[in-house]
């Protein structure tokens, strides 16, 4: 019934030579340590962002809905202009993206946890004593040898007791329960499918677990595994389809490369540092219409609860902006996928600072880039999924709606 | 396809020991008497609200949609986090709630109006000369004796010519037209049902009217009645289901108790004054996670068009806040169900001042609680249905959405 912003993008997109850069500081928004104090962003010295704010328009972005704290998946889908309530990324899919596994349309991705069971098959430790990563990796190699007729099996380590399992085969559904019972003293649950295709997946899961039990029987404490977040990747239209944009992603961390790949962006060689990323941007400048540049450390320092480190990382992010501006993009968007206040040591629901700069901006009198300036900004408070339509408009890439 | 905020609350709720207090001044928002003047709230001395605003976050709440003036039902459903366009409370149901009638799932509730008909059965006065309440009450006693096979019949006076009729029985539908033709000179309309179950209700309505005609034939001017707002109570998920909150309502007026009961709150003994209400809050503090406290007089003075009285009542409301704060709730929400500007002597569509105070608020530099401060507040302008998700987040009662 209702027309989503995405449908409008499909309908109205047009092409030109403009360049759009989306520069994302993960977990950008923050909180002051005390009422009346300054946030991390307000504390940081950010001359480049402040200057850009003076010629741009500010606002606050709500990643999902008021009060809803997003994970990285919904947070980025929102930024990319996809309604994060319509497109749901399962845990298994996100884990697979996080280890650079290139998921195909016939793949079911699963997050696995090594666990410990006793002689009666009851779970005694849901994380197998948090085994070291190298032990986990060796066990994954063993599990990767398991053969199941009719499907390809991939088993890859993530970290410590965590792993990813992918089953590749025709007609597999993604609606299967977790086998982790969420407590010890009982056996893992049987996998069951919610429809015929998922029942097929569930049978494969149960068969895999049976074989894993044999393979791991001498490997205590990690003598079994549980399966969680069993899912297929969402059927999602690409950036090229939605916006007509040839798009490149420049992200150091695999999960963000994976999320970009999910919407059809080309994943470029980002290197390891922000300087590497900016070098990559410059080298690829002529090849793409749109660039997604992801900076991780404003989130990780926030999650660590380290206010000062987040301030410093924000300044590093600011320095990167100068190199983007040197390339003279038509539109620059600066924002985050969600807030990560160091006070909370976690993602939060607080709206995220947003800056859009282009020749066609309506000047809003902002003097700098901060939560308090953004609160008064000309874009108001908008859902993240509308950032891309504003960027497209600012790049003159949208036709008029209706006659 | 898209998920409503309520579905997210179902999915993401988690429990802890936090306490949330929603402190509602009915009809809180106002208008200045002259352009450039102050509203009732801006005129009132509200030291407690102002202090809370300094450590909280302000905003404006739109009860339904811009320009839409809500009745008490939709106004409160919005505050409670239920989309007032999805959940519709029929007039009959609201009238029944307003006289503390405890409606069950098999009840059809009807608002009745005594009217006057002539010898040809044509209506000559749709309100029977606005008969006095004690006369209306006596007539209701007579009507309450009417017996209809297969259903229980309840007839209760409201005020003057207004009454409530409830039919209790299996399989009764709630989709029946009003029998009030909205003008004089013609007979009342026949009741007709829109589906089989409602047709059954319509037959009962017509039979009841026939018997009422006999019972009231000597009681001119009130010698018949019309039926309006024939409805069943909406099938509405409870606060416990949606939020996992054990909730108590502290309201002096029956309609607000009824609305709270409709969403599954426990109705507490509120007494008659704001002091009684605060005493009730303190006594029940340990028994509930969430309290809804309703203050009526900011609305009734507004409806009276008495600016000064509304100012005074606002100050009384402010004084009550100190007693809430003394209990140290995790989250305090202060707002109204709609605006009632005394200049308009009526409910209005103007957005309602909103204050949310909790440790995890993002400071927005507010200096006091008023329409003009709220307009600049950090929550922006939001629909009322998002207040509860913000409160839940601020109380750390929501899981992250998506991985």
TrEMBL record, chains A, B:
Domain Metalloenzyme as annotated: residue spans: 19-392
InterPro entries to which the protein is assigned, alphabetical: Alkaline_phosphatase_core_sf, Metalloenzyme, Pglycerate_mutase_ApgM, Pglycerate_mutase_ApgM_sf
GO-annotated molecular function: metal ion binding; phosphoglycerate mutase activity
One matching Pfam family: PhosphMutase
Catalysed reaction, written as an equation: (2R)-2-phosphoglycerate = (2R)-3-phosphoglycerate
Any GO BP annotation: glycolytic process
Keywords for this protein: Glycolysis
Highest taxon, organism lineage: Bacteria
Pathway, per record: Carbohydrate degradation
UniProt function note: Catalyzes the interconversion of 2-phosphoglycerate and 3-phosphoglycerate.
Family stated for the protein in its record: Belongs to the BPG-independent phosphoglycerate mutase family. A-PGAM subfamily.
Protein's recorded name: Cofactor-independent phosphoglycerate mutase
